[in-house]
Amino acid sequence: MLLIECPWCGPREESEFSYSGEAHIVRPLQPEELSDEEWADYLFYRKNLRGRYLEQWNHAAGCRRFFNAERDTVTNEIKSVYKPGESPPEDDS
Amino acid sequence: MQKYSFLNLARNALSYHENWQRAWRSPEPKSDYDVVIVGGGGHGLATAYYLVKEHQIGRVAVLEKGFVGGGNTGRNTEIVRSNYLWDEAAHIYEFSLKLWEGLTQELNFNLMFSQRGLLSLGHTLQDLRDIQRRINANVLNGIDSEFVTPEQIKEMVPIIDISPDARYPILGASLQRRGGTARHDALAWGLARAADSVGVDIIQNCEVTGIRREGGIARGVETSRGFIKAGKVGCVTAGNSGVIAAMAGLRLPLESRPLQACVSEPIKPVLNMVVMSNAVHAYISQTDRGELLCGAGVDSYNGYAQRGSPSTLEHALSAIVEIFPRFSRVRMLRQWAGTVDTCPDACPIIGLTPVKGLYFNCGWGTGGYKSTPGSGWVFAYTIAQDRPHKLNEPFSLERFTTGHLIDEHGAAGVAH
């Protein structure tokens, strides 16, 4: 069970949250001009990194707000959390 | 290879079973191979075995960073079935099931393959509609599949709770009588022994750290035991497929997730079939040792830790206890997790890559074990012929660009 710190509510247990995958994926601004490859990239391709990963969580059973987390996918250590719109922390690994 | 037979058993008894040949060699890596397979799990070993047996490739090596069968092959819940919804998936899983039916004889290794029957429960009217649809699709594809009523289920599995006021009322199920279980360690060992006997070098404790390319063509692999030259490289590394792909500058549409399972203390035989429920993400069977073997759905977040959250397992077990109330006092002995590579459409990727001479077999997600022999067979064909077999042609990497996805998610009754 992960202990996740919501930037608005503080530390809560994992079962209050839902996972929303990789962070900082920008929705296409001009979708009608996208090629098939670009659509595939936007819809299906994820970094899926082993190690430091920037990802989105939603505090579904709490404040219901989205936020970003910097987590190590091998150790499950959550190094930092930050609000949407904020830039990701420096990679100090 | 020393054959396992009654005669040899009796002969070796005379020397107190001290002179059995080792099941497989532990060779030093050569500097050059025709084909190098990265990943010594079931799929990789099966690929190597069929490369030699079906395609007469001379020099084949399997590189494994840990030990044979120490990854997902040794961590699954042993279920074998082929009742998938879509034609493409049904064909490859049914092909695999047919190979399973003769595999113990072919490998000369007792896989404890038991076609004890597999029930997939429905708890709502929509579940029943989906089940009927899948049964019809299966029958059209020549796969045995039938509908059973709650009373018939109760007759086959007397300990199940079919009362209408149950938390998850059982309204019916699909039954695949040819489905069942096979011992996972036996599959790993049997394939390793058979591959070794046809000349495959199985090199354990040898981690691949890079893929050497020249002008867009794969030339070999950098490993923890030095560079190994290869005519062709086949990667079958499940949860770490994305990591290996990155070594060749490729990306894959995969997300690696923990998938958990657990076993109970051994109890007397009470459950002689596999029972699964897609709606509550749980499946259960009883092993020959008497343990209840239970599996959950994938954890919600990406992870390579081979460790999941207790809440996921608790969710599956609480459903199992509702369906089998008498299991409420059974104690669980061990729990574990493997890292599975989930694909957006819950179907594998088996085929060529933009790098010539480099092939990937990945994305099996939660359903790889049952397909091991079929997956190895088609991947061996793909590597040897440098083109996909018609069974794995639909499972190309290009389908994510063309949009020809094979959506086996909820509709197929796949337990995730």
Structural overview:
The complex is a heterodimer of chains A (93) and B (416). Chain A has 93 residues and is mainly beta. Chain A contains 1 helix and 6 strands; from the N terminus they run E-E-E-H-E-E-E. Chain A has a 4-stranded antiparallel beta sheet, with no helix packed on it. By secondary structure, chain B is α/β, with parallel strands linked by helices. The two termini of chain B are 39 Å apart. At the A-B interface, strand 3 and helix 1 of A face helix 10 of B.
Write the topology of this structure:
The complex is a heterodimer of chains A (93) and B (416).
Chain A: E1 3-6, E2 10-13, E3 18-22, H1 36-43, E4 52-58, E5 66-72, E6 78-82
Chain B: H1 6-13, E1 32-38, H2 42-55, E2 60-63, E3 79-80, H3 87-107, E4 118-122, H4 125-140, E5 146-148, H5 150-156, E6 172-176, E7 180-181, H6 184-197, E8 201-203, E9 208-214, E10 217-223, E11 226-235, H7 241-247, E12 255-264, E13 274-277, E14 282-286, E15 292-298, H8 310-323, E16 332-342, E17 349-352, E18 358-362, H9 372-385, H10 399-402
Parallel strand pairs in B: 1-2, 1-11, 2-8, 4-13, 11-18
Antiparallel strand pairs in B: 3-7, 4-6, 5-6, 9-10, 10-11, 12-15, 12-16, 13-14, 14-15, 17-18
- Gyration radius over CA of chain B: 21 Å
Task: Give the overall pLDDT of chain A as a whole number.
Answer: 95
Count of discrete alpha- or pi-helical segments spanning 4 or more residues of chain B: 10
Secondary-structure content class of chain B: alpha/beta
The number of E-state strands of chain B comes to 18
The average pLDDT score of chain B comes to: 95
Order of helices and strands of chain B: HEHEEHEHEHEEHEEEEHEEEEHEEEHH
What is the H/E order of chain A? EEEHEEE
Q: Report the radius of gyration of chain A as a whole number of Å.
A: 15 Å
Largest interface: A-B, 25 and 24 residues
Helix content of chain A: under 10%
